[in-house]
Design a protein that fits this description.
The protein has 242 residues and is of the alpha+beta class. Helix content is 36%, strand content 33%.
């Protein structure tokens, strides 16, 4: 009987920790930036047990969203919306807690954003940080991200078109050739529509179509093997090995 009461008390303690925040303290900050910096001044440890969150850490995990929601509703006259997922390495409960949470007013003005994301120290312990960003700056950054993504797609399309034009041209023995996926090597034999390529390696951490037309320094994942391939899956290119 005593054990049962102890377990019930423990469960109530865990549940209470998971839901309670000091509303008066949260509301006392003059700005969202002050609240976020004051309530979350340093990384907060989250205990992981058997691949899931330790129940004793549940309150700390849920605290940021609860405090942000209360401050947004009561001090900023808005509502909290999740703008972006920032998924960590563990469970859905952690996934739900992390992300970019924005305070939206009148469903059109983004007042401020709190970015909650996971960090790990060198020993593998899990922490989260909460960072403040003004709403207009966040929107500007997202717009810039869109422009960068558009430029990357343009470069990729140009590289593919360049590769496709060169891939159909005839090959010769000893010629340097590359794939659109950034493998590079030399033609050793030609047999009909196939070529034997000595694949020297692959350009590491480079975008699709790296060799078409760019040719600058790159690190290599060595392959060093002879492989038969359709001739039109490789194209003439230029590279220098050291």
């Amino acid at each position: 009987m005593k054990l049962k009461l102890l377990l019930l008390t423990l469960a109530a303690t865990i549940t209470g920790c998971a839901t309670s925040i000091d509303h008066e303290v949260v509301a006392s900050y003059p700005s969202a930036a002050d609240m976020i910096r004051g309530e979350f001044p340093k990384p907060t440890h989250i205990a992981i047990h058997k691949g899931d969150i330790n129940p004793f850490s549940l309150g700390r995990l849920q605290a940021p969203e609860k405090k942000l929601t209360y401050y947004c509703q009561n001090n900023s006259s808005g509502r909290i919306v999740k703008l972006k997922e920032r998924k960590p390495f563990y469970t859905e409960r952690l996934n739900a807690a992390f992300g970019d949470f924005g305070c939206l007013k009148d469903d059109k003005t983004l007042l401020w954003v709190a970015i909650i994301e996971q960090t790990n120290d060198k020993y593998g312990y899990v922490y989260y940080t909460v960072k403040y960003t003004p709403g207009d700056l966040y929107v500007a950054d997202k717009a810039l991200d869109v422009l960068v993504a558009q430029e990357e797609r343009r470069k990729e399309a140009a590289a593919k078109a360049n590769f496709d034009a060169l891939a159909v041209k005839s090959k010769s023995i000893g010629q340097q050739v590359c794939t659109a996926g950034n493998n590079f090597g030399y033609v050793k034999e030609i047999s009909g529509n196939n070529i034997l390529v000595y694949v020297h390696g692959r350009a590491n951490l480079r975008p699709y179509g790296f060799f078409f037309p760019e040719d600058y320094q790159f690190r290599t994942n060595p392959i060093n093997s002879e492989q038969w391939h359709p001739a039109n899956s490789w194209a003439m290119c230029s590279f220098t090995t050291r």
